[in-house]
Write a structure and sequence with these properties.
- It is found in: Cell membrane; Membrane.
- Belongs to the ATPase A chain family.
- One of its GO terms (molecular function) is proton-transporting ATP synthase activity, rotational mechanism.
- Keywords: ATP synthesis, Cell membrane, CF(0), Hydrogen ion transport, Ion transport, Membrane, Transmembrane, Transmembrane helix, Transport.
- This protein is mainly α.
- The protein has helices at 20-40, 49-77, 79-94, 110-131, 133-141, 151-197, 204-244; strands spanning 8-10, 18-19.
- Strand 1 and strand 2 (18-19) form a beta hairpin.
- The protein contains 7 helices and 2 strands.
- The mean pLDDT is 88.
- The protein is globular, with a radius of gyration of 22 Å.
- The chain has one domain.
């Protein structure tokens, strides 16, 4: 099983330490940036090849996430934020099924924490910019048209739900799903290796079953990888929309 506290590759013992997981983040984000630079550097009216793939991917995020939740005007306004989150989560997740990488760097808390903080700061900024600090926080935590005594209960619940649980659940959901998927893939492939090469005679049938399960779970993990990127971007859009309409709480 891959080590989630691997030794440093560069700058060991400093705040800028780079280990295997950090290197994977840098590589995958670099490849993502390179893909879009190559795809969109000389755009044609009728897209072909890699430009077509990039535009289809961007249109998916724009139509099915940003505009679906925020509407056309606000969806286009926040498309850079939402598409960045979607593609970074997708790219850093997909290393978990690439040979010789075999692990998602989102299986450790740092990257999900950064992505959740990015979403958190965005929806706070949107609400505060539109309503002002005090009105935004009041609109977010004070439920209208309820008996005054209930505010003693509802205000703490709304505060925790809006300003603590939102980023926390974004972070933990991504990390937990990618960590669980990595562990299961390691178990399936590890047991296949054991039955084929170490367990002795008459165990190859178990190795075949383990290998088949590993391959099947790899395809399932590809679906999870996409869904985690989709859900993260979708919830970010929902939180931005909630901030835009905080006064209709």
């Amino acid at each position: 099983m891959a080590d989630f506290n691997p030794p440093a590759i560069l700058f060991g013992g400093t705040p800028f330490e780079i280990d295997r997981l950090v290197m994977l983040r840098l590589i995958m984000c670099g490849l993502l940036l390179l893909f879009f630079v190559l795809a969109l550097r000389s755009q044609k009216l009728v897209p072909r090849g890699v430009q077509n793939v990039a535009e289809l991917a961007l249109d998916f995020v724009r139509i099915n996430i940003a505009e679906e939740i925020l509407g056309k005007e606000q969806g286009r306004r926040f498309l850079p934020v939402i598409s960045t989150i979607f593609f970074v989560v997708l790219a850093t997740n997909i290393s978990g099924v690439i040979p010789f990488m075999n692990i998602s760097s989102n299986g450790r808390i740092a990257m999900p924490m950064v992505l959740a903080a990015f979403a958190y700061v965005t929806f706070l900024y949107v609400g505060i910019k539109k309503y002002g600090f005090l009105k935004y926080f009041k609109s977010s935590i004070v439920v209208p048209n309820v008996p005054p005594a209930l505010h003693l209960l509802l205000i703490p619940i709304e505060f925790i739900s809006t300003f603590i649980l939102r980023p926390f659940t974004l972070m933990v959901r991504l990390m937990a799903n990618m960590l669980a998927g990595h562990i299961l893939l390691v178990l399936f492939f590890g047991s296949a290796w054991y039955f084929f090469f170490e367990a002795g005679n008459f165990t190859a049938v178990f190795g075949v079953a383990s290998l088949a399960a590993a391959v099947a779970f790899t395809f399932f993990e590809l679906l999870v990888i996409f869904l985690q990127a989709y859900v993260f971007a979708l919830l970010t859009s929902v939180y931005i929309d909630t901030s835009l309409h905080a006064d209709s709480h």
